[in-house]
Task: structure prediction
Amino acid sequence: MTQPAGARTDPGAGSEGSPGDVRSPEPWPAGRVLVVTATYNESESIAALVDRVLAVDPRLQMLVVDDDSPDGTGAIVLAAAATQPRLHLLIRRGRRGLGSAILEGFRAARGHGFEVAVNMDADFSHAPDDIPRLLAALEPIGAPPMDVALGSRRVPGGRIVGWPLSRHVTSLLVNWFSHWIIGVPARDSTTGFRAVRLGILDRIPGPFEEGYAFLEDMLWRIDRAGGRMIEVPITFTNRVEGTSKAGMRQTLEGAVALLRMALRSWWP
Ligand SMILES: Nc1nc2c(ncn2[C@@H]2O[C@H](COP(=O)(O)OP(=O)(O)OP(=O)(O)O)[C@@H](O)[C@H]2O)c(=O)[nH]1
Ligand SMILES: [Mg+2]
Result:
């Protein structure tokens, strides 16, 4: 990838960085909540998503962690970041997995002094307007703060719109396995829409699963560390633009990772 104008390649604050990574300019404005979105070939939706997220609340900032998408997603975000100080970008060399992108985003958030990260997908399956409800759920009235608020499709009020039967079956199986075999205390452990109080990262050093199974792995580790989580009902809408990034390879890697996690939880 040719380095776009306005970018830099040295490691930024709060992220381990790798040679060849490209970042939008520093410093970032101070903030409390950073929305982290991992992208791979999401050029059809990313510009609209950025606009919608940053319009939800003027205090929100957003970081896109792109794995050098061949369709130019990173360049779109970098151009937008040139005029929007609340938007940030990390482009990593090569496809390195959803989980590792989210984790790197969370670590960058922590390194830049943010207190909370909100993870969401780039395909509008997660509604930006639901972000305030997730953030509010982290601070329940009259109860101790939560570490994680999950945007959940599997609590009363939660919905899935537009999935074929095969997706429902796979998702139910994975959630069943994750809950009853691995022991993740959530009904929707596969949701990619979640607000996380970043201080919990200090108590769960990893190493983490790097692909899609990171989503379940992170919750398992947070529970083991005594972290508290709550599920907030959301409506999940199947992507209408772009294509799924969860191909056969990612699905197989995810299945192997779930088995590995089951072994680890039964025989630590
Ligand atoms: N940086 C990075 N992002 C990824 C990678 N794989 C997937 N993503 C992003 O992770 C998010 C979830 O991927 P999706 O393809 O929507 O997966 P899904 O929701 O299970 O499947 P569909 O919605 O049916 O496509 C999207 O924003 C993707 O662009 C990866 O290897 N690296
Ligand atoms: Mg999706």
